[in-house]
Design a protein that fits this description.
The protein is an alpha+beta fold. It contains two helices and five strands, in the order ααβββββ.
Protein backbone atom coordinates (compact mmCIF):
# COMPACT_ATOMS: atom_id res chain seq x y z
CA UNK A 1 0.00 0.00 0.00
CA UNK A 2 2.89 2.36 0.79
CA UNK A 3 5.92 2.70 -1.44
CA UNK A 4 9.26 4.51 -1.24
CA UNK A 5 7.81 6.99 -3.76
CA UNK A 6 5.15 7.89 -1.18
CA UNK A 7 7.91 8.59 1.33
CA UNK A 8 9.84 10.72 -1.18
CA UNK A 9 6.72 12.72 -2.06
CA UNK A 10 5.86 13.26 1.62
CA UNK A 11 9.44 14.42 2.26
CA UNK A 12 9.27 16.90 -0.65
CA UNK A 13 5.98 18.33 0.63
CA UNK A 14 7.38 18.61 4.17
CA UNK A 15 10.54 20.44 3.03
CA UNK A 16 8.61 22.86 0.82
CA UNK A 17 6.12 23.69 3.56
CA UNK A 18 8.90 24.13 6.12
CA UNK A 19 10.77 26.55 3.86
CA UNK A 20 7.62 28.56 3.19
CA UNK A 21 6.89 28.64 6.94
CA UNK A 22 10.41 29.88 7.66
CA UNK A 23 10.23 32.72 5.10
CA UNK A 24 8.27 35.23 7.26
CA UNK A 25 10.47 34.48 10.28
CA UNK A 26 13.65 35.03 8.25
CA UNK A 27 12.28 38.26 6.76
CA UNK A 28 11.21 39.55 10.18
CA UNK A 29 14.55 38.61 11.73
CA UNK A 30 16.51 40.22 8.88
CA UNK A 31 14.54 43.46 9.07
CA UNK A 32 14.76 43.41 12.86
CA UNK A 33 18.54 43.06 12.79
CA UNK A 34 18.77 45.87 10.22
CA UNK A 35 16.62 48.17 12.34
CA UNK A 36 18.59 47.26 15.45
CA UNK A 37 21.90 48.15 13.78
CA UNK A 38 20.39 51.37 12.40
CA UNK A 39 18.96 52.23 15.83
CA UNK A 40 22.33 51.69 17.48
CA UNK A 41 24.08 53.84 14.84
CA UNK A 42 21.50 56.63 15.20
CA UNK A 43 21.30 56.21 18.97
CA UNK A 44 17.52 56.01 18.67
CA UNK A 45 15.42 55.14 21.68
CA UNK A 46 12.36 54.14 19.61
CA UNK A 47 13.74 51.81 16.91
CA UNK A 48 14.13 49.00 19.44
CA UNK A 49 10.30 48.83 19.62
CA UNK A 50 10.10 48.25 15.87
CA UNK A 51 12.82 45.60 16.22
CA UNK A 52 10.86 43.84 18.95
CA UNK A 53 7.61 44.08 16.96
CA UNK A 54 9.21 42.58 13.82
CA UNK A 55 10.75 39.77 15.85
CA UNK A 56 7.44 38.94 17.51
CA UNK A 57 5.50 39.14 14.22
CA UNK A 58 8.01 36.96 12.36
CA UNK A 59 8.08 34.39 15.14
CA UNK A 60 4.30 34.39 15.44
CA UNK A 61 3.89 33.94 11.69
CA UNK A 62 6.33 31.01 11.76
CA UNK A 63 4.57 29.34 14.68
CA UNK A 64 1.18 29.76 13.02
CA UNK A 65 2.27 28.49 9.60
CA UNK A 66 4.26 25.64 11.10
CA UNK A 67 1.44 24.50 13.36
CA UNK A 68 -1.35 24.77 10.82
CA UNK A 69 0.37 23.94 7.57
CA UNK A 70 3.80 22.32 7.97
CA UNK A 71 3.16 20.12 11.04
CA UNK A 72 0.49 17.97 9.32
CA UNK A 73 2.98 17.29 6.50
CA UNK A 74 5.58 16.23 9.08
CA UNK A 75 3.02 13.97 10.79
CA UNK A 76 2.20 12.31 7.47
CA UNK A 77 5.90 11.84 6.65
CA UNK A 78 6.42 10.13 10.01
CA UNK A 79 3.35 7.99 9.36
CA UNK A 80 4.63 6.83 5.97
CA UNK A 81 8.05 6.05 7.45
CA UNK A 82 6.42 3.96 10.18
CA UNK A 83 4.36 2.08 7.59
CA UNK A 84 7.44 1.32 5.48
CA UNK A 85 10.11 0.71 8.13
CA UNK A 86 8.29 0.06 11.42
CA UNK A 87 7.30 -3.16 13.12
CA UNK A 88 4.48 -4.99 11.43
CA UNK A 89 1.90 -7.45 12.59
CA UNK A 90 -0.33 -9.65 10.44
CA UNK A 91 -3.95 -10.36 11.31
CA UNK A 92 -6.34 -12.61 9.41
CA UNK A 93 -10.08 -12.31 9.88
CA UNK A 94 -13.38 -11.18 8.43
CA UNK A 95 -13.83 -7.47 7.74
CA UNK A 96 -17.04 -6.61 9.57
CA UNK A 97 -17.08 -2.82 9.22
CA UNK A 98 -15.46 -0.05 7.21
CA UNK A 99 -16.66 3.34 8.45
CA UNK A 100 -17.18 6.01 5.77
CA UNK A 101 -16.81 8.82 8.33
CA UNK A 102 -13.38 10.21 9.13
CA UNK A 103 -11.57 10.26 12.44
CA UNK A 104 -8.16 11.61 13.40
CA UNK A 105 -5.48 9.28 14.73
CA UNK A 106 -2.01 10.70 15.51
CA UNK A 107 -2.61 13.64 13.17
CA UNK A 108 -3.69 11.41 10.25
CA UNK A 109 -7.25 11.36 8.90
CA UNK A 110 -8.47 7.77 8.87
CA UNK A 111 -11.44 5.47 8.48
CA UNK A 112 -12.15 3.02 11.30
CA UNK A 113 -12.20 -0.61 10.22
CA UNK A 114 -13.22 -3.67 12.24
CA UNK A 115 -11.87 -7.17 11.61
CA UNK A 116 -13.28 -10.19 13.45
CA UNK A 117 -10.78 -12.97 14.07
CA UNK A 118 -13.23 -15.76 13.47
CA UNK A 119 -15.80 -16.54 16.14
CA UNK A 120 -18.18 -13.71 15.27
CA UNK A 121 -18.25 -12.60 18.92
CA UNK A 122 -17.56 -8.96 19.82
CA UNK A 123 -14.56 -9.97 21.94
CA UNK A 124 -12.76 -11.12 18.78
CA UNK A 125 -13.16 -7.77 16.99
CA UNK A 126 -9.99 -5.82 16.24
CA UNK A 127 -10.05 -2.11 15.43
CA UNK A 128 -7.77 -0.78 12.71
CA UNK A 129 -7.40 2.65 11.12
CA UNK A 130 -7.18 2.99 7.34
CA UNK A 131 -5.45 6.07 5.86
CA UNK A 132 -7.88 8.39 4.05
CA UNK A 133 -5.15 9.36 1.54
CA UNK A 134 -5.20 5.83 0.15
CA UNK A 135 -8.06 4.43 -1.94
CA UNK A 136 -10.60 2.39 0.02
CA UNK A 137 -9.99 -1.36 0.06
CA UNK A 138 -11.72 -3.08 -2.87
CA UNK A 139 -13.15 -5.86 -0.70
CA UNK A 140 -16.75 -5.65 0.48
CA UNK A 141 -17.67 -6.04 4.14
CA UNK A 142 -17.83 -9.74 5.02
CA UNK A 143 -14.71 -10.69 3.08
CA UNK A 144 -11.94 -12.66 4.77
CA UNK A 145 -8.89 -10.39 4.75
CA UNK A 146 -5.24 -10.39 5.73
CA UNK A 147 -4.30 -7.08 7.38
CA UNK A 148 -0.69 -6.03 7.91
CA UNK A 149 -0.54 -3.25 10.48
CA UNK A 150 1.79 -1.10 12.53
CA UNK A 151 0.13 -0.41 15.88
CA UNK A 152 -3.48 0.04 14.71
CA UNK A 153 -2.70 1.68 11.36
CA UNK A 154 -3.12 -0.47 8.25
CA UNK A 155 0.06 -0.95 6.19
CA UNK A 156 -1.58 -3.29 3.71
CA UNK A 157 -4.77 -5.25 3.23
CA UNK A 158 -5.40 -8.21 0.93
CA UNK A 159 -8.06 -10.80 0.44
CA UNK A 160 -7.03 -13.86 2.48
CA UNK A 161 -6.56 -17.17 0.74
CA UNK A 162 -8.65 -19.93 2.30
CA UNK A 163 -6.49 -22.55 3.99
Amino acid sequence: MYTPEDEAQARRIWRRRLLISLAPAAAGLGLGVGLFVAGCALRSDTLWMATAALTVLGGGAFLFLFGVWARPALDYLRHVRRMLHGRRRETVGVMTRFAPELCERDGIWCHAMMVNLGSGEAEDDRLFYYDDEKPAPPMPVGTRVRVVSNDKMVCGIWEAQEA
